[in-house]
Fold this protein.
Amino acid sequence: MNNRPTLSAIFIILVLCAFFEPYSAAAAPIDTVPWSFFRNIVIPSESPSLIVIELDSALIEKSRPDFADLRIVSNSGQTVGYTLINPPAAHNTSEETAPKAMRVSRAVGKWTDIWIDKGSKSLSTGFTLETSSTDFARRLEIKGSDNTKDYYVLSMDKMLVDAPGPIPVRSLTVDHQANNFQYLHIRVIDDELSPLQIEGISLKGAKEEYPLLRRADLKVVEKKSDPTTGAAYIIADLGPNSYPLARIALLSPEREFAKHITIFSAKAPDEDTWRQKYSSIYYRLRKEEAKQENITFNFQPITSRYIKIELTGGARQILSITGVETWSIAPAIAFEAKEGETYRLYYGASKATPETQLGPSINVSRIFTDAGRANMSDEITVVRSRKTPASPAVSKPPGVATTTEKLGKIVGIAMLLVGLLLLFSIMLRARSLRKERKRTQLRPMDRSL
């Protein structure tokens, strides 16, 4: 019976330890030894608490493919939860849907009319025609209406093409002015030729551009051509701090051409290291004032610094390339920054497990409206030491306590108070037990008297 107060106290202390254990675990700084690199995160002044960091190609190549090794660490040594924003696989495509109704009529020797009912005033930016016809080039007139009576011109210079030759070109997808007309009228100008066999059509809807797709810079370091074959290539440097390349447009003043285009990448401009990343057909075809072309190419992001663009096949003409336009697309991470704290981004740990802390929810389409964009310092190699890691070089403002420090103080004070109360209650209980024991010992003596 005399042991009950002590056992009760031990039980209460164990419960309190179990309760406060997560706080003590959270306070333990991360061991950064498994990581190879880090960068200081530079947050502009007056930024919102929600911060976005875009990951450049050099960082991506040294990280795990699934980014499981990324860690954001505060100046107190605590890891911070983040949300990974990965670019969509199809960052350049639009969804295609079938119209509610389609009707085809023909004026033999003149044109073929295709009447489209979308079913509602939905947004469309183009269409893909289904036909089994071959070897043709047809000019198009495209109009839109809301009442099937008053039609407004959307395009008069597009065309459909199926051109055999050294480089066959079959192009049945047509882009036009974005609109939300319910009805479309597509006129295929036949010009006394056999009409096309129209088997179906699908409409291209609008797809919001991924906000992290942006124009990129490059420097042409070599440009050569072979007049005997018409082949040519361009080698370009994207720079040491570039973001993954995802789109290229080749500008040319030539009226008509068709070439195979192949894109290679390499870490250095050595021809033995080039790896093929993409291939397609680069062309521009015309019929009177109408034209159909494919001069912009979208592909899976390339993280290498150097690219080579090869143009081969077709006629033995040397194409005049007047410009190369490029776009990059980057994965990003978003996290909540606390006032008075500074942060580092660690990466390059092959055996790291994914971060378990959840990051903030974020609307990708409003990413630069709701969040501030942070930059990063140059790469720093982690010093291989088993000592407690140092805090980031940028110190917090004097006199400003971090959230973790504030929480640690509160928990420490609370545990001290609880300990004092327990000690006081144990002392009171022990005192009362001693008194009760004395009274119990005196009772037999009272009876004997």
Summary: Residues 45 and 372 are 10 Å apart (CA to CA). Helices lie at 4-27, 57-62, 367-370, 403-448.
